[in-house]
Each structure stands twice: as C-alpha cells, then as structure tokens.
Amino acid sequence: MMVMNYAEDGDLRRYVQRNMDTLRWKDAVEMLCNIAMGLLNVHKNGTYHKNLHSGNILKFYGCNIADFGLCGPSSSSEPRGVYGSLPFVAPEVLAGGSFTAKADIYSFAFIMWEISSGKPPFSDRPHDHSLALDICHGFRESIVPGTPLFYEELIKKCWDADPSKRPDAEEIIDALLSPYAYQRRLLGLDEYSLNTVDEIDDFDAFEQIVASRISNTQYPVAPDIHPFAFYTSRFLLYPNLPTPTNSTYLAEPSQTSYFDLYNPTNQVEEIITFEEYDTHCPPELSETESDNEIEEEPYIPPPPMMHRRKSIAPPPMIPTS
C-alpha cells in the first residue's frame, strides 16, 4: 500500500479547468517538468506506468504521478487488451504491441495538449472502435492557436506513431527547459533551476514565449463532453486494428522553428506534419503525385452492433379429435 499526501487541488484535469484564466506558459512548463521527472524515475528502473493521464496526476507541491496499480515491466504473458483511457493510450499498444517507456511518452503528449487547450482530448466524439482506428491511422488533436513553437514541436514528437521517434523523459525535460537556458545565457545568469524562473520573467522575448498567459479563446474552460467519451480507466480491446502510421505529408515549414532561431547551424529540412482531419470522418491517405506509389490500406469499419433476436412463440397446438 502506498500512502500519499492529500491533494487539495485535486487532479490535474480539474486544476487546469479551474485555473485556465490565470495559467501561464511558465506554469505549464513547471507542471510538465514535475511529471517528466516522475516518469524519468519510473523508467530508469525498467518499469512503465501504463495508465498515465491527467486524472492520474495529483496537484500538490507541484504535480505528482499517482495510480501505480499497473506500473511494472512489460510481460509477454499479459492478456490481450489494455486498461486505460483511450485518448491517452499509444497506438502500438492499442494494436496489440508490447508496452514500452515510449508508450508513456505518448500519454505525456496528450497531457501537454490538455494543459494548453483546457479540455480533455477527443471530447467531441465517442471513445469507441472508430476512434481507436483513427488513432492508429495517425489522427491527432489540432494544436491550439498561440501555442509556443517549442511546446508545439515537443507535442508532435511525443505523439509520433513511431515509438522510436519519441523523446525519452530526460530529453523532454531538456526540451521544456531549453527556452529558459537560452535566455539565461543571454542574461549571464547561473545554471537554470525551477526556483529562479522569476529572474528572467521581465525579459521581453522570453515573456512572450513562456510567461504569457495560455490563450483559451478557441476551447471553453468547461467544454461539453460527448456522453460516450470516457476519461476514467477501463478495459479496452479493439480487434483488427492496423499497424500505426502517421498521417503525413512533406511540406516546407510555414515558419522557422523556435530551436532553429537559436541553432543557426541547423539546416531547415522538409518536415513531417500531421494532416488535420474532420473529426467525424475516417482519415484518408494523403494525395501524392503518383497514386501508384502508395498501397492504400483498406478501411476496416467497426464491428456491427449485435442485436438480440426476439423469441418467436410456437404456433398453438390444434387438438385432434
């Protein structure tokens, strides 16, 4: 049995929704660093949380990961299916793959997105086989307008369909703190620590990037949630899911990356980005110059609803004379 302090502020989801009007990007970075540090401690022991979502993050003296009931190493003897909240479950796990540390990182991406938007992911649609299928095809939430570039880039890396392309917990911490580190070097301040963030809050460029308030004009603080969108952990088993892929196209970046501004030696290359789909339609493969170069993967519809057949009473027996 694990005994923890009482979390007066509740879980992270409730905290974000209650404080969205005062939450700043600096606050988001601090909370996410707490969570990433907790993941780092879990992963360095060769174990994985396996059920990471904003309802399992408690807010007291920072952010603390809770609900370690499923925490442990992966095992080939684990039963089919997964226990969790569908929007936070990595596509390779949904498709029947083994759980790894990178599956926790995928969950972390949607915690980042929820903090920036003020609402839980995929709240406008049922959490069913159709959503699981879309996730495996690379469907993701849209980045909230006004999100700092370093934050947006990190989200996209963490929810990549290829686990090998996701950063580990230590790399996440470095990415979250890199804007602080750069500005501290400009100001000649000592090595960064979370306790000294306020020393550079007055620096205009940094204020615009990290210390500004999170804009929540697009998403209301208390959004309407679909009646079949579930954010408590439950058993998930969706057969016949395809191998996860990114819904991608090659495009020139619309603007210079935040990190490229401060790393002039980096060359801007073609980047892979996620296409935005209508949330009510299954994703289609992107168009290319030659349709013959891509083998289109067949769309697998969700299994039909089974209805119980009505019993038919036998005809009455006619007495024989």
TrEMBL record:
GO terms for molecular function: ATP binding; protein serine/threonine kinase activity. Residues 281-321 are annotated as: Disordered. Residues 286-298 have a biased composition (Acidic residues). Keywords: Kinase, Transferase. PROSITE patterns: PROTEIN_KINASE_DOM. Signal peptide: none annotated. Residues 1-181 form the Protein kinase domain. It comes from the Eukaryota. The keyword Cytoplasm does not apply. The keyword Transferase applies. InterPro entries: Kinase-like_dom_sf, Prot_kinase_dom, Ser-Thr/Tyr_kinase_cat_dom, Ser/Thr_Kinases-Pseudokinases. This is Kinase-like domain-containing protein. It comes from Glomus cerebriforme. The lineage of its organism: Eukaryota, Fungi, Fungi incertae sedis, Mucoromycota, Glomeromycotina.
